[in-house]
Specification:
alpha+beta; Jelly Rolls; 2 domains; 5-stranded antiparallel sheet
């Protein structure tokens, strides 16, 4: 007969208590956001909270630096930081005094970039721009394969070696799509001094610590991205977009044009922008929670591969709640207020005001009068459903690839 195992509940550690407390505090932050106007805003906030909870737990369990691996930093169900609908985000945790080997295959996506960050999510500062660059700095084989190394300074590091600056804690990778059906690349990271060994199995103390880390990550995540719109968007005049400028945060190959909108139900924002010579140019809307709107089932973003370009080389977008019946309609999905942003990536020159957008606020019924090629921009219900179906299929293929 087997004797049942009993435990003394008075000595059992409350492992999840710190994380539960962080969730409760995060819920208060969400509920008290000063931009909430209705229950729909609040529901979106709680959905954002759910994604943040998932992401924080995932990152805490991937936090160990002895045997790093790439994990999805943000995605359709773990959104943060005005995530770009055209981008897959990965990161791995690193230490500045260790050496890492990254092997991969460059696919036919629009851009592949690398950025080394500190623990506070700011860029490191190392000579030669080793903290942020795209794959143009790599030696890539004809079949698309590549190997690069990150680590401490070396006298003779060889090709594709990049220095980890002081305080380095994270290697972030962005793979950017113009065509959502493009072949996904491959990527793997190994730490030189631990590859071929196994990490120490987590004990109760380490699991407890991970819940604590997850709680801190959750609150840091929400507090950090609450501040970004106030810093970079909300002080700008409403319903305007800035001239292109280098994106804050160390992305050396990216320019952006930013703004925020507030449109009545009968209003439309007509945006005119030149099609760029940069390999990637994309526009998107975001919510006041500083995350992308639903870009799978709604056309809340367009890049140059998806947008209709007029014969004069201009792209004309119409942002509105009501459907104006054109291919380049950007849906607000019923949100009166939100964030708007252009990105140009893999640039080879400094962008100027002439590369950026101009904006006009009009009655949605007057859209045709403001589009010089309106007759060739119109789309019927069947055509629109085909556009949405293409987005849904491209997203499904990309996320499963």
């Amino acid at each position: 007969m087997t004797t049942p195992v009993t435990t003394d509940a008075t000595v059992t550690p409350d492992v999840t208590a710190p994380f539960a407390a962080a969730v409760a505090e995060a819920e208060k932050l969400i509920a008290s956001a000063d931009f909430i106007r209705n229950d729909d805003d609040l529901a979106e906030g709680y959905d954002y909270l759910a994604g943040s909870i998932r992401a924080s737990l995932q990152m805490a369990w991937a936090y160990g630096k002895s045997h790093p691996f790439f994990v999805t930093s943000t995605g359709p169900y773990t959104k943060m930081g005005l995530d770009n609908p055209d981008t897959l985000y990965y990161h791995a945790n690193v230490e500045a005094d260790a050496e890492y080997v990254i092997t991969g295959t460059r696919s036919d996506t629009a851009d592949l970039s690398f950025q080394v960050l500190k623990g506070d999510y700011t860029a490191t500062d190392v000579p030669g721009g080793d903290d942020a660059f795209d794959d143009r700095r790599l030696d890539i084989e004809p079949d698309g394969s590549f190997t690069l190394r990150f680590g401490p300074p070396k006298d003779d590091p060889g090709p594709n070696y990049f220095v980890l600056g002081e305080g380095s804690s994270m290697l972030a990778v962005r793979e950017v799509y113009s065509d959502w059906s493009a072949q996904k690349g491959q990527l793997r990271i190994e730490r030189v001094d631990t590859v071929g060994t196994a990490p120490q199995e987590a004990g109760l103390a380490q699991i407890t610590r991970r819940y604590q880390v997850a709680g801190k990550m959750l609150l840091s995540r929400i507090n950090t991205w609450f501040k970004f719109p106030k810093w970079f968007y909300l002080d700008l005049p409403v319903n305007t977009l800035t001239a292109p400028r280098l994106t804050p945060g160390g992305l050396s190959t990216q320019f952006s044009s930013v703004g925020h909108y507030d449109l009545a139900d009968n209003e439309a924002m007509v945006i005119t922008v030149p099609k760029s010579d940069a390999p990637y140019q994309g526009f998107q809307l975001g919510s006041m929670w500083y995350i992308s709107l639903d870009y799978v089932n709604h056309q809340t973003s367009l890049n140059t591969a998806q947008a209709q370009v007029d014969p004069d080389g201009m792209i004309r977008l119409v942002v509105s709640k009501q459907n104006p019946g054109i291919a380049n309609w950007i849906e607000t999905t019923g949100k009166q207020r939100g964030i708007a942003q252009f990105r140009w990536q893999r640039v080879s020159r400094e962008l100027t005001e002439s590369d950026g957008p101009s904006v006009a606020i009009i009655d949605v019924g007057d859209v045709a009068a403001h589009l010089p090629y309106h007759d060739t921009n119109t789309i019927d219900e069947t055509g629109w459903r085909e556009r949405i179906a293409s987005r849904q299929r491209g997203f499904a293929q990309r996320m499963l690839g």
